[in-house]
Write a structure and sequence with these properties.
The chain is of the alpha+beta class and about 600 residues long. The protein folds into two domains: about 350 residues, Glycosyltransferase, CATH 1.50.10; about 240 residues, Distorted Sandwich (Beta-galactosidase, Chain A, domain 5). Helix content is about 30%, strand content about 20%. The chain has 17 helices and 20 strands. The strands form four sheets. It has an eight-stranded antiparallel sheet, with helices on one face. Strands 7, 8, 13, 14, 18 and 19 form a six-stranded antiparallel sheet that branches. Strands 3-4-5-6 form a four-stranded antiparallel sheet, with no helix packed on it. A hairpin with a 4-residue loop joins strand 3 and strand 4. The N terminus is likely disordered.
C-alpha cells in the first residue's frame, strides 16, 4: 500500500509476527479484549457506536456479541487461554432469556438473528463442552428454544441455508433435539448450487464472490469434519469441491497476501482467509499444509498493516481504513467481527501438521500468464514484477445492494488500486469513475453499468451488453492482453452524451501544493499519473482528451484520496466505438502494447467498428 496509508494507528496486530499457533492465540485475545467495556448495561450484548443498519439495534447488539465466537471458539477448542468464559456464559444466557429486558427477540423471516444463530450453531459443533455444557439448566433450555426457531423462518436461497443447517447440526452435536428433515432438505438444496470445477454460487443466480470461499465452501468443510455422519456423501462432495476450488482461489491473492477487492461485504476484512482456515481445519489427507498456511497467514499479516481498528481497539467498518461509505445496508457496528472466521486453525493443536509446516509462497507468475475462471466469469493476472493481481469480471448484482455497480460491474479490479464507490452522481469528482465508462447527458448526472442484458465469456474475453438508458445500447468487450488489458465500448445512442472512460485510481501524494509525489501527464489520447503507485490509460482508436480526476475523498477502498487518469469525449447521436488500453503493471506508460492493439483490431473487425 502507498506510504500515506502505511501508518497503522491502533492496530493491535501490527507488532504480532502472525506466524505461529501462539501468535494467532495472542491475536485472537487482542482482538476480543477491547470489546469487554462495551457490553450493554443489561449484559446481554455488545454495542459500541450509535450507527444503524437495516435491522434493529437489538439485533445489532446480538450480532456484535455472537461474532466474537468466530475467533474465541477455536481459541478455546485448541486449548488456548481465555479468561472471560464466565462473561460469555452470562451474556449468552441473558440474550436468549425471553424474560430478560434485553432479550434478543425471536428470529422471524429473513432476519439478521438467523445469521447469528448460525454462529451459535457453529460454536456447538466445534466446542460444546466449553460454550454450551457449562450454561445453567434454564439457559441451555432457552438457547435450545431460541435456536430451534430458525426452523419456523423463511431464509434466502443462498448462503443463509447454512445458518439454519449450523443451528440444527450444532444442537444435534450437543445431544439436543433438532429438525432432521430440515437438515436433509438444506443439504440437498446447497448441492444444487454447485457450478462444477469446485465452484458453488451464492444462490442460484451464479453469484461468485467472496461468499463462495468464506461461506459456501467454509461451512461445508466444517460440517464435513464435525457432522460427517449426518450425510457422508454430501461431505465427500464438499471436500472434493474444496480441493478443486483451492487451485482457483489462490489466484485471488497477491504475493503479499492481499485479497482482491471485489464484491460485497468487504468490511469483513480478514474473512478473506477463511477458506484456507477451513481447509486446514477439515484435516483432509494430502493437504499441502505449507501452501495452505502461507495463504492464510500472508493475508492476516497484510491486514495487520492496515488502519482497521479505532483508538479503543475495536474493528471498524471500512476496508483498509475506517469508511462507512463503502459498506452495505446490512452492516452494523459489530459486523466486521465476521473476520474472526480466519482463526479456525486455532482449534488444531500446535503440533498439527498445519502449524509445523513451513509456509510456501505463491508460485512466481510469468508475464503472459492469464487465469480464466469461467464459473465466476473472471480472468485474472498476477504481475510478475510486484505480485499484484488484476481481474476483469463479467458479473453484476441485484439493485437491492448498496453500490452494487461499483462492487461487481467495474471494468476491472486490482489489489494495487482498490476501487471507488460514488459519493453522488452529480459531478464526475463525486462519481469517482475508476475502471468505469461514465455517461451523462448534461455533465452533471452520471451513469455507469449496474446490471446487464447479456454476458458472455470466451477464453480471455468478456462481452457485456447493457443499457444505461432504455434507448442507449452499450456492448463492452474486455480482454486480457498482458501487460495491458483493454476495454472496447460500442455505443448506439439517439442522445448526445458526455463520456468519461476511467482508468485505475492511485493515491494522491501528501500534501503540499504542487504535490511533489504525483506527476501527471495528459494529452491527446492518453492520461497518466506517476508516483509510488502508477496508472495510465491509452486511447486505441481515437484522440480523446486525457484528464486527471481528483476524486472526492473516501471514495476508494484502499486510499482516502485518489487521482484517476481518464479519457473524455462528447458523443453525438449515432454509433461510436471507444477503445482503451490500461497497463496492469505498476507503470505510467502511455504507449499501448502490441498485444493490446492487435486484440483491439480483432474485436473491431468482429463488431465492424466505426471510425471515431
Amino acid at each position: 500500500m502507498h506510504e500515506q496509508t502505511r501508518s497503522i494507528p491502533h492496530n493491535p496486530l501490527a507488532g504480532n509476527p502472525l506466524r505461529t499457533h501462539r501468535d494467532l492465540q495472542n491475536a485472537a485475545r487482542d482482538i476480543f479484549e477491547p470489546v469487554l467495556p462495551f457490553i450493554t448495561p443489561g449484559r446481554a450484548g455488545i454495542r459500541f457506536d450509535a450507527t444503524g443498519a437495516s435491522y434493529s439495534n437489538r439485533g445489532a447488539t446480538m450480532e456484535a456479541f455472537a461474532r466474537q465466537f468466530w475467533s474465541i471458539t477455536p481459541l478455546i477448542a485448541g486449548g488456548g487461554r481465555f479468561d472471560h468464559l464466565d462473561v460469555i456464559h452470562e451474556v449468552l444466557s441473558n440474550g436468549v432469556n425471553p424474560d430478560h429486558p434485553e432479550f434478543w427477540g425471536d428470529p422471524t423471516d429473513i432476519d439478521q438473528r438467523i445469521v447469528e444463530i448460525g454462529v451459535l450453531g457453529a460454536c456447538l459443533l466445534i466446542a460444546p463442552e466449553s460454550i454450551y455444557e457449562p450454561l445453567p439448566t434454564k439457559a441451555r433450555a432457552d438457547l435450545e428454544r431460541f435456536m430451534l426457531k430458525v426452523n419456523q423462518c423463511r431464509v434466502p436461497e443462498n448462503n443463509w441455508l447454512y445458518f439454519r443447517l449450523l443451528a440444527n447440526l450444532g444442537l444435534r452435536h450437543a445431544g439436543r433435539p433438532c429438525d432432521e428433515r430440515q437438515i436433509a432438505e438444506d443439504l440437498a438444496r446447497i448441492d444444487t448450487m454447485a457450478l462444477g470445477n469446485g465452484w458453488l454460487s451464492d444462490g442460484l443466480g451464479r453469484q461468485c464472490d467472496w461468499y463462495v470461499p468464506w461461506a459456501m465452501q467454509y461451512y461445508g468443510l466444517v460440517i464435513a469434519r464435525q457432522a460427517r455422519e449426518i450425510n457422508p456423501e454430501f461431505c465427500e462432495r464438499a471436500e472434493k469441491r474444496a480441493r478443486k476450488f483451492a487451485d482457483h482461489h489462490q489466484h485471488w491473492f497477491a504475493s503479499d497476501g492481499q485479497g482482491l477487492p471485489f464484491g460485497r461485504s468487504l468490511t469483513y476484512k480478514h474473512a478473506q482467509a477463511s477458506f484456507w482456515a477451513a481447509w486446514a481445519y477439515s484435516g483432509q489427507p494430502q493437504t499441502p499444509w505449507g501452501r495452505v498456511k502461507g495463504m492464510l497467514l500472508r493475508n492476516l499479516r497484510w491486514w495487520s498493516q492496515q488502519a482497521i481498528f479505532n483508538p479503543a481497539g475495536l474493528l471498524v467498518n471500512g476496508y483498509a481504513y475506517p469508511n462507512t461509505h463503502m459498506t452495505e445496508q446490512y452492516n452494523a457496528h459489530g459486523s466486521p467481527y465476521w473476520a474472526g472466521k480466519a482463526f479456525l486453525p486455532l482449534a488444531l493443536s500446535e503440533n498439527h501438521p498445519f502449524w509445523t509446516a513451513d509456509e510456501e509462497p505463491l508460485p512466481a507468475p510469468e508475464q503472459e500468464t492469464v487465469i480464466t475462471q469461467p464459473e465466476a466469469r473472471m480472468a485474472l493476472r498476477r504481475d510478475p514484477d510486484d505480485g499484484q493481481v488484476t481481474a476483469i469480471v463479467g458479473q453484476s448484482h441485484g439493485r437491492w445492494l448498496r453500490h452494487a455497480g461499483s462492487k461487481y460491474a467495474k471494468l476491472a479490479y486490482a489489489t494495487r488500486h482498490g476501487f471507488c464507490v460514488p459519493l453522488s452522481h452529480d459531478t464526475i469528482e463525486f462519481f469517482a469513475p475508476d475502471s468505469t465508462l461514465a455517461l451523462s447527458e448534461d455533465g452533471r448526472g452520471w451513469r455507469s453499468r449496474t446490471d446487464h442484458d447479456e454476458i458472455e465469456m470466451i477464453d480471455r474475453r468478456i462481452v457485456i451488453r447493457w443499457h444505461p438508458w432504455p434507448d442507449v445500447t452499450v456492448t463492452t468487450w474486455l480482454a486480457m492482453t498482458p501487460p495491458d488489458y483493454i476495454r472496447v465500448h460500442f455505443i448506439d445512442t439517439p442522445r448526445s452524451l458526455h463520456a468519461v472512460d476511467g482508468g485505475f485510481a492511485v493515491p494522491l501524494a501528501e500534501e503540499t501544493r504542487p504535490d511533489p509525489g504525483n506527476h501527471t501527464d495528459t494529452g491527446e489520447g492518453h492520461a497518466s499519473v506517476r508516483g509510488p503507485i502508477n496508472a495510465a490509460i491509452i486511447d486505441l482508436n481515437g484522440k480523446r482528451q486525457g484528464e486527471i480526476i481528483k476524486a472526492a475523498p473516501n471514495a476508494n477502498l484502499l486510499y482516502p484520496r485518489v487521482l484517476i487518469p481518464a479519457l473524455q469525449s462528447h458523443l453525438n447521436p449515432g454509433i461510436h466505438c471507444l477503445a482503451a488500453a490500461v497497463p496492469m503493471s505498476n507503470t505510467a506508460r502511455v504507449e499501448a502494447s502490441h498485444a493490446a492493439r492487435a486484440e483491439f483490431d480483432s474485436i473491431a473487425a468482429a463488431e465492424h467498428a466505426p471510425a471515431e
